[in-house]
From TrEMBL:
<dbReference type="Pfam" id="PF00107">
    <property type="entry name" value="ADH_zinc_N"/>
</dbReference>
<dbReference type="Pfam" id="PF08240">
    <property type="entry name" value="ADH_N"/>
</dbReference>
<keyword id="KW-0479">Metal-binding</keyword>
<dbReference type="InterPro" id="IPR011032">
    <property type="entry name" value="GroES-like_sf"/>
</dbReference>
<keyword id="KW-0560">Oxidoreductase</keyword>
<dbReference type="GO" id="GO:0051903">
    <property type="term" value="F:S-(hydroxymethyl)glutathione dehydrogenase [NAD(P)+] activity"/>
</dbReference>
<keyword id="KW-0862">Zinc</keyword>
<feature type="domain" description="Alcohol dehydrogenase-like N-terminal">
    <location>
        <begin position="58"/>
        <end position="209"/>
    </location>
</feature>
<feature type="domain" description="Alcohol dehydrogenase-like C-terminal">
    <location>
        <begin position="250"/>
        <end position="331"/>
    </location>
</feature>
<keyword id="KW-0520">NAD</keyword>
<dbReference type="GO" id="GO:0046294">
    <property type="term" value="P:formaldehyde catabolic process"/>
</dbReference>
<protein>
    <recommendedName>
        <fullName>Alcohol dehydrogenase</fullName>
    </recommendedName>
</protein>
<comment type="subunit">
    <text>Homodimer.</text>
</comment>
<dbReference type="InterPro" id="IPR013154">
    <property type="entry name" value="ADH-like_N"/>
</dbReference>
<dbReference type="GO" id="GO:0008270">
    <property type="term" value="F:zinc ion binding"/>
</dbReference>
<dbReference type="InterPro" id="IPR036291">
    <property type="entry name" value="NAD(P)-bd_dom_sf"/>
</dbReference>
<dbReference type="InterPro" id="IPR002328">
    <property type="entry name" value="ADH_Zn_CS"/>
</dbReference>
Length: 449
């Protein structure tokens, strides 16, 4: 990493190499000149580039990244996903804007630095930062939690209205803290963890217990927590229930763990990759189905076969494949029909099946309405319904705490994340991360700075 001094104000900055530490009668700003993985156009590979990272403004922190990881969403980002409405007034987005955003002309955000999973140490803080300090180990996240807005107080959602997901790739003030050759670089949401240093609003970071293994903390920043929270928090899987998980990547494995923690009796994993069977077993899966071995049967038919024709209580769709939505719905229990004694009186119909959509995809498709009308519940989930400040510390504790096994023979962590890590690369070999990610035995790739 190099250093530079910027003279003037943020509106017009001239950058020169840092050759002195004091200048008379001149206001100067310390910039960092460092390397980051930048994607310039949709479909292109990331390139390591020297970029400038500004110092943190008020309520912001600058983080020295220790490690990051690769998520399917990062690959989608390199391919132009997501496309978001460019808000000329730089106002924050919240749930009331979603329909407008999705129905308006969009454009990809390039150049951009991907990455939304990672962990690092705070190098410097801006004014009015009180919850964290220099030297703290933190996870940068793509959503925050104020605890005071309507959504936070409801206890029903983790989508904070004060600190929402930054869809426009910019900081809350509508600007970026990263540039290259004077050109603005967009953030991935507000994270961009594939950079040696990042700047982020302090309301989007969570402190990490120093006892936590740092690679595991990186995995908690998105994938695994998204799945775990969906079962643990979003729908609160009931004891002795039957659960199906479509797709056994990091998100799906998180669902398995969450369902196990909730006491599900049957946890059925579904994946086209037989290598995921062993991984699924490590996270509590009780049964495995590979649709490729089914001679053309649909996923929903396969799940009904192993549940006596009833379907499952909970079906978690983790692939993002559009056609799997209907399969997930039809694989869930339809209705319970019962009457008064001797079948005389009122007929009651009660829906039992719950479908949780987790996999991200910007494509649209045709939805079959009749299966939905027959009493099922469909729920979407962002980050598994997990609240950054209220819930992440609890999950971290479960990753640290050790409990006794049956018959007190040994101890193990409540949540064991070792099986997620399959590959490691250095930051300067980040192109290899994409190659590893395509391998059938890959779950998570750790990027070490």
């Amino acid at each position: 990493m190099k250093f530079a001094l910027a003279f003037g104000n943020y509106g017009h900055i001239e950058v020169i190499p840092l050759v002195a530490t004091k200048f008379d009668n001149c206001e100067c700003i310390l910039l960092y000149v460092l390397e980051a993985a930048v994607v310039w156009k949709s479909g292109e590979q990331v390139k390591l580039e020297e970029i400038q990272v500004d110092p943190p403004k008020a309520t912001e922190v600058r983080i020295k990244m220790i490690c990051a990881s690769l998520c399917h969403t990062d690959i989608s980002v390199c391919n132009g996903f997501p496309l978001f409405f460019m808000n000329p007034r730089n106002t924050s987005y919240n749930e009331t804007h979603i329909h407008f955003i999705l129905s308006t002309l969009h454009q990809p955000l390039f150049p951009r630095i991907p990455g939304h999973e990672g962990v690092g140490t705070i190098e410097s803080v801006g004014e009015n930062v009180t919850e964290v300090k220099e030297g703290d180990v933190v996870m940068p996240l793509y959503l925050g939690e104020c605890g005071e807005c309507l959504n936070c107080k409801s206890g029903k959602t983790n989508l904070c209205l004060t600190y929402p997901i930054r869809f426009n790739g910019l900081m809350p003030d509508g600007t970026s803290r990263m540039s290259i050759g004077g050109e603005k670089i967009y953030h991935h949401f507000n994270c961009s963890t594939w950079s040696e240093y990042i700047v982020i609003d302090s309301n989007y970071v969570v402190k990490v217990d120093p006892r936590m293994e740092l690679p595991h903390a990186s995995f908690l920043a998105c994938g695994f927590t998204t799945g775990y929270g969906a079962a643990w928090k979003e729908v609160d899987v009931k004891k002795d229930s039957t659960v199906a998980v479509l797709g056994l990547g990091a998100v799906g494995l998180g669902v398995l763990e969450g369902a196990r923690m909730r006491g599900a009796a049957r946890i059925i994993g579904v994946d086209l990759n037989d290598m995921k069977r062993e991984k699924g077993d490590a996270f509590g899966m009780t049964e495995f189905i590979n649709p490729a071995d089914s001679k053309g049967k649909s996923v929903s038919d396969l799940l009904k076969e192993v549940t006596g024709g009833l379907g499952v209580d909970y079906c978690f769709e983790c692939t993002g494949v559009v056609s799997m939505f209907d399969e997930a719905v039809e694989a869930s229990k339809m209705v319970s029909i019962f009457c008064t004694s001797d079948f005389i009186g009122t007929l009651y119909i009660k829906g039992l099946g719950t479908v949780v959509l987790i996999g991200a995809n910007q494509s649209s498709g045709v939805v079959k309405f009749i299966p939905l009308l027959l009493g099922r519940t469909v729920k979407g989930s962002i980050y598994g319904g997990v609240r950054p400040q209220s819930d992440i510390p609890t999950i971290i504790d479960k990753c640290i705490n050790r409990v006794l096994s049956s018959f007190n023979l040994f101890t193990f962590r409540e949540i064991q994340l070792d099986e997620l890590l399959t590959h490691k690369v250095s930051f300067h070999e980040i192109d290899k991360a994409f190659a590893h990610f395509k391998q059938p035995d890959c779950v998570k790739v750790l990027i070490k700075f």
